[in-house]
Amino acid sequence: MYHKTAGFRGFARPMRAGLRSDGGARMVAARAAAVVESKVLRLHHAGAANLGRYRAAASEPRRSSRPRSFRRNSHEGAAVMALRAMRENMKYLKWVLWLVIAAFVALFGSDWSGLNPNANPQVAAIVGGEPVKTDEVRIVYRNLDAYYRQVLGERYTDETARQLNVMGQALQQTVQRKILQREAHALGLAVTDAELREAILSNPLFQDDSGNFVGAEEYQQRLRRYYRTRIEDFEQELRRDLELLKLNDILRQTIYVSDREIEEIYRRQAEKAKIRYLQLPATKIGEVEVTEDEIAAYYESHKEDFALPERRVVDYILVDPLKLRGEIEIPEDELRAYYDDHQDEFTAEEQVLARHILLRVSPERSAEEAKATLADLKRRIENGEDFAQLARQYSEEPESAQRGGSLGFFGRNAWGEDFTEAVFGAEVGQLVGPVETQYGVHLIEVQDHRPGGLRPFEQVRAQIEARLLTDRANELAESRARELAQRLEGEDLTGEEAFKEAGAAAGYEVRTSPPFGREDAVPGIGRGLFPETAFGLQPGEVSELIKVPRGWAILRLKEIQPPRVPPVEEVADRIRPRVQLEKQKALVRSRLEEARARLEAGEITLDQLAAELGVEPQETPEFGAGGFIPGLGSNPEAVTAALAAAPGDVAGPFDTAQGAMVFEVVERKTFDPAELEAQRDALRTAEEQKRLDALQRSIIERRMRELDVRYVDQTLRDLGIEGDLAQG
């Protein structure tokens, strides 16, 4: 079965540099290195695209002036921490780049051994009639996997790989590469033998200590050693990569960023504000009356909000593993055997709980100066001052500083060697440092120490029993479900009563679902294949046995409800609270309009007004353009007003999720022409790259639709790729 998609939402970052279409051989060689570095960036950004749902900060490009975070919240997902670790390690990976120069646009790395011309691999996808074979995808996967392991070390676990969807990334990159190759060929781009030769000769991997080519025999040996491939395969892939560099350069030539655009970009980044505000919730107004006429008026102007898509109702039989657990008993010897065979699961690593104060080293402050400052803080703490308070005041690692310097519990492999040695060699309660690391200079307090080792059987017995019960219940449910399907096979179940009687005869209750849409979660079932299967049935038709989140199910389509707009009587209870909130917000705005006039006239201060209204004034951190205010959320109108005001100005009221607010500007950072000139080139480069990203992404998405890209479902399952490919 083929699976068709209109295009990927995630997109690997394109190459940083390209080749002039009329460029000579030496320019090709000089730009070949960009293929490698661009691939590192593409990996980095592909992972970030997958994890946008965790935290937007994980996908922001890091500028050299931005302080690196030493320790993040220990409860964040493994994939988020993985991306951050990659970000921190990027500048230490330069030595890797030339080792993996060849075919780094997609088939990067050191293992091409999967390209066996005599093999008969499965087809994972079809791109414009051209197959994407599993051996190609697995090569990319192996090298992606090796890259992540190199960057993340022991933090790269199976769970991290699953969250990053590494196999999905591999398939994505392989498909994208084929699309871009077709684009390059359509433009008539080609790499001459001289350009290919110069790219190889200039590769340090094929040079001796004097920078000369190592010779044909050693060249062949190094290809076997590092790439495990034949010369002709290596050079064919390298030629394709250089073609893509030429395509990339042609695209880059179409991009122009004007000085005025640079100025606007700088303004958005540089102009900041900090405000004090008071927010008056609508609930402060109390209940307001909502009339039937107001409900009817709201309904008429918001009918589309209540429109219902096509919905379906099914009768279904569910084989639920949870209901079978009571039939299962796990003997004690099996619990013991599992414990003995899986002791690695129950072996805890040694961990410490610590907090720190970090001072960063910069041209303005040497390491020795930072150490002297921390030595003084150490004396103050030893004399009784509070570590947490000093961390909030002095630490330059913002996230831990907000927690009083706390880093949470962490193991020996979490951070750098110097930091680890200092912390794990200390006693609980001991102040350690100053300790210098790649992040800066630290003063550390060890608060707790958990020794590692194997947890006793008695401590994990319940955990083992629950796991085995779940496994056995799932196995039993599948077995019972298949028996049920076999029993019902061949029977005429199109009639509602026949389906119910057949289910009852087999010992199962036949349930009826509430109406649900194609994208809805079905109460008691979830999403999965249940709604998808229901929308593939005709009235009275019975499905095959399907796997659903709650177990196994057989469906019979009972009813199709066409799209409709329900009458006002049906949705009145949903409309009433909306109208009430609108009326309350209108009253809040009116009250704050009066309050703003008093503030501007100097009759009252913001604090006095807050006390009068029974609310607490709040102060935001610094924020800039983009429409988001910390503590208030998205509020573009208020952001625009704040960035147009001067310190001391009052603005508002502005609607908020809870009601409305007025604010007073506390601080403003304004446009600095000198700083703009200093950053102009960097801003232009970044904006050009951003537009190049968008252009290449647009090409790929458009070509994917035109080329009718299809995926082979069974092959994807064999590769372990699950869910929406666009997330890969």
Q: Indicate the percent of residues in helices.
A: 40-55%
- Strand composition percent: 15-25%
Mean pLDDT, as a whole number?
79
For the largest beta-sheet, the strand count, sense and barrel status come to: 5 strands, antiparallel
How far the N terminus sits from the C terminus, by CA atoms, comes to 20 Å
CATH top level class name of the largest domain: Mainly Alpha
The CATH topology assignment of the largest domain is: Triger factor/SurA peptide-binding fold
Secondary structure class reads alpha+beta
Q: Uncertain spans, ≥5 residues at pLDDT below 50? A: 1-120
CATH architecture of the largest domain: Orthogonal Bundle
The CATH homologous superfamily of the largest domain corresponds to Porin chaperone SurA, peptide-binding domain
Keywords for this structure?
single chain; 728 residues; alpha+beta; Triger factor/SurA peptide-binding fold; Chitinase A, domain 3; 4 domains; 5-stranded antiparallel β-sheet; 4-stranded antiparallel β-sheet; 24 helices; 21 strands; 47% helix; 16% strand
How is this structure best described in words?
This protein has 728 residues and is an alpha+beta fold. It has four domains: 2-256 and 684-727, Triger factor/SurA peptide-binding fold, CATH 1.10.4030.10; 272-306 and 568-670, Chitinase A, domain 3, CATH 3.10.50; 311-340 and 457-561, Chitinase A, domain 3, CATH 3.10.50; 350-451, Chitinase A, domain 3 (Roll), CATH 3.10.50.40. Strands 4, 15, 16, 19 and 20 form a five-stranded antiparallel sheet that branches. Strands 1-21-2-3 form a four-stranded antiparallel sheet. Helix 11 crosses helix 20 (568-600). The two termini are 20 Å apart.
